Amino acid sequence: MKLPDHEVCYRALQCRDDRFDGLIYVGVKSTGIYCRPICPARTPKSENCYFYGSAEAAQEDGFRPCLRCRPESAPDLASWRGTSNTVSRALSLIAEGALDGAESNVEKLAARLGMGERQLRRLFLQHLGAPPVSVAQTRRVLFAKQLIHETQLPMTEVALAAGFGSLRRFNETFQELFQRPPMALRRKTSNGHAGAGTGVTLRIRYRSPYDWDSILAFFQARSIPGVEVVENGHYLRTVDIDGLIGSIEVAHHAERQSLGVTIRFPSVKSLPTVVGRVRRLFDVGADIETIDAHLSSDPFLAPLVAQRPGLRAPGGWDGFEIAVRAILGQQISVAAARRLAGQLVALHGKDLPMEQRVHPGLIYVFPTSQRLASVKSLGLSMPVARQFFLKAIAEATVADPNLFHPLGSIEETVERLRMIPGVGDWTAHYIALRAIRETDAFPASDIGLLRSAGAIQGEKSTTAHLLDRARSWRPWRAYAAQHLWAAGPVAPSKGVSVV
Description:
This protein folds into four domains: 6-73, DNA Methylphosphotriester Repair Domain (3-Layer(aba) Sandwich); 85-185, Arc Repressor Mutant, subunit A; 200-283, TATA-Binding Protein; 319-486, Orthogonal Bundle (Endonuclease III, domain 1), CATH 1.10.340.30. The protein contains 21 helices and eleven strands. The chain has helices spanning 6-15, 55-60, 85-95, 106-112, 117-127, 132-150, 155-161, 167-178, 212-222, 271-282, 288-296, 302-307, 319-328, 334-348, 369-374, 384-399, 410-418, 425-434, 447-457, 463-469, 477-486; strands at 25-28, 33-35, 49-52, 64-65, 200-205, 228-231, 234-241, 244-253, 258-264, 350-351, 364-365. The strands form three sheets. The protein has a five-stranded antiparallel β-sheet. The longest helix has 19 residues, at 132-150.
């Protein structure tokens, strides 16, 4: 990937400029260590510095992570995002364990992305400076290091959570990389670990600005009774991963530019998946300065971006859940869609065991695609045709477990989703935006977008006109859509299907 020239990077290092945190890393040849640009250590000489666009590239070149600035706690950013959606998709899959386990390999990962292994390796080297296997290994090490610093999990559980095949391999990797055993890195002030009741709490850094109030209001308006709760500035929900169930609680720590997530889940092996989904849900990996600057270049959007700097595009916990919510929300208000979702989980959701109910509002786990595909009648108070569409999307998900995983371009993604009965252009784009995290998804026919665009320009807007205007917003049209929705009426009228 292309970095600023050496002089610019070095000045950022000298000034400890946090605008570059997560965007560049410095490898110091005199120490063999790589650091974040905000590292408090004495600034090395310029001739001893090598600059990289990712921690993976620095580690691939033989540098080991700094113990002071902790590269694992840097915001997970990349200035190239938007230019290589394939690498972004691959990183999301790697974060959820696509290269962990004996049966996982780069060839299978490339196949899931619809390309050859050699092409995927080339893209990783171009944009990250390291091949996929090295990226996965670096992320395992950094996640393990975060668990060591921030929790009191036993080392055996840390190794399992980080995706190491054995405790021996875990110990060998840390000894080789840090010249000390893992336990030597543990801080006495780490959070306690008291099992499922207390949970494991981790920090997830983001790049400021971050409009926490807007994203929390978004989730609150759409929270499914029994599954999600938003109160006192916290977001809580039940979760289901591979048949195991638990819950998460997310809070905002503005002074530390991070989210704190407390995970209560029976299997530590699922921690990377849970953290990856929380990152996706709250869109913490967005290079928001780049996105806001790009959208602000259009006078049409500039006032909206100025009003809400750091506005994120909320994701979804599970692709199937988002697809169901999109079907439920067709042609009705947000409040009505929320009530239907509550009926659905009360009828078909799995009960959360009493010992796991850390909040009285967390009662159910959202029903799986297998459950909805198998029932004869959904029993919902909604048109029969709409219920048929829900069954169809459940059956499609059962038939293709990778249905909501990133694959190909936004056009290919939308076309693939539109093959499902009941999924039109609006629904496909909405699913692509929230479930598949396509930054260029844009449901241009949405009534809320059209009304907001019309109010700004002072005349009625059409889908064709909005699509034409949105050309200059690419590849960040999803964020433009979020700004337009946020600028709309507080209480959406019937037909605004922002579910």
